[in-house]
Amino acid sequence: MTKEKCKPLTNYTYADLVWRNNRIPIAQKFDDPYYSLDNGLEEVRHVFLTSNKLPHRLKDEFKIAELGFGTGLNFLSTLWQWRLKKQKGVFFYTSFEAFPMRPEEMIKAQSEFPELSSIKNEFLSLWSELLEKGKLNGKDYSLKLILGDARHTIKNAKITADCWFLDGFSPAKNPELWEEELLKDVYRCTADKGTLSTYSAAGIVRRNLSSAGFEVERVQGFGRKRHMTKAIKK
Ligand SMILES: C[S@@+](CC[C@H](N)C(=O)[O-])C[C@H]1O[C@@H](n2cnc3c(N)ncnc32)[C@H](O)[C@@H]1O
Q1: Superfamily covering domain 3-232
Q2: What residues contact 176, with CB distance under 8 A and at least 6 apart?
């Protein structure tokens, strides 16, 4: 292998965080929390797992992609669901992230969710490896982290996801992750009948998803949010 190929992925800026009540991480750059202040894990289950019908759809070689890896909570929750189902095989999870959290901060954020304790402990020493190599392979998952601005990195992505988790910060604070052109690339990287969901029900998000080609639906949201959005590629 050449020296170039061995080079670690060091070309990124870590997220600068402040902590609310020493529990919930907030990205200073976006002034927005990484997950619901009510119950982050329940929100993930409602918005991403249930809305995409993952408890039924997960199967060997299922492909999930995500905008915004953050604390890794969506990934860990998907793995939790996979193992709860005693699903055989491997699922593929590709996440796009411009400002990764430091491994110790990811671990601190995850400690908020004791339900995930056995799973998250498995990853304590693996987050730095993920940042260094851009991928982790376990017995039942294959995780890929694509570092950089998703609007650019997705251009080279050759993925056909069965399901997308759109998890940027709120469209008002992080508009770049909801741009029409990016969502067109998300559409290109989605399998036929593939689905997506997001906690946001903002008009701009629904309009951009529609222009990208998705069939869009506004459905019941989690907690204080009355609505959220899900969509399908037909
Ligand atoms: C709400 S957080 C994601 C939470 C995450 N899914 C979790 O499970 O903790 C939004 C994420 O989007 C990332 N982000 C913001 N702008 C981005 C961009 N242009 N490209 C890629 N990632 C971006 C942020 O750094 C942050 O990690």
Answers
A1: Vaccinia Virus protein VP39 (3.40.50.150)
A2: 149, 151, 168, 182
Tokens of 206: 């629904």
CA of 124 to the centre of ligand 1 (A): 20
166 Cβ below 6 A of ligand 1: no
| Distance separating alpha carbons of residues 187 and 164, to the nearest angstrom | 10
Q: In what order do the strands lie in the sheet with 135-137?
A: 135-137, 141-147, 91-97, 63-67, 161-166, 190-198, 227-232, 215-220
pLDDT single digits (tens) 79-130: 999 999 999 999 999 999 999 999 999 999 999 999 999 899 999 999 999 9
**Backbone phi, then psi, for 164, in 5-degree steps?**
-115, 140
At CA 10, angle to CA 113 and CA 141, rounded to 5? 45
Instruction: Please give the angle made by the CA atoms of 217, 48 and 42, to the nearest 5 degrees.
Output: 120
